[in-house]
Description:
Layout: H1 3-10, H2 13-23, H3 31-47, H4 59-83, H5 90-112, H6 124-150, H7 152-156, H8 159-174, H9 180-195, H10 200-208
Helix pairs in contact: 1-4, 1-8, 2-4, 3-9, 5-6
Amino acid sequence: MPAGNRAIVYALIPMITLLISFALTIETPSLKRFTGIALGLAAMLIMLLPGVHVPVEGELFWTLVTLLIAISYAAENVYVGLKRPDGLDALTAVWGMTTAGALMLALSFWLMGAPMLLPFDFSIAEGALLLSTLSHLMAYSGLLYMLAHGGVVFGSQVSYIVTPAAILWGIALLGEQLTAGITTALVLILAGLALIKPNPKRRAGEQQS
């Protein structure tokens, strides 16, 4: 599945977050926000239309898998926003999440007999993995900070940066083409994100509290 296509699907995370927030009465529904969600859905569907791009074998399956991942991230955003203990700072939260994830991965590797990259010999591969880990910790700490101070929907709107950046990196590093379908989907998804932006009055109330 092309990186640009994955980026479009991941950009649905704030819209899925908003739908969950509607269901839990955390956010207030409105026609404008539903229109934004519809634009996001259209952005994903346009990539799957015949003739928009040359399909890759198994792409539909992996698109659905990516959508499931997006739904999981959205559910996490809402859960963190609702259940985060008072006074828990972003670094402590991300440390706990990373430690728990590392333990689960270590158990999975052990059960499947997968290589553990030990001993760590600081080759290019290990250095890239270490750099990726540090970048993840910094980025996720920032996301948790935004979830705490701006709300779950506002925090999810990092897609404004992530989506175009992923498409550009796919072009620069993977040789992907900026097709008319991807360009149209990107415009639709950014328009949708603009329409679902948080209620300013609600954000002001959260900051005062």
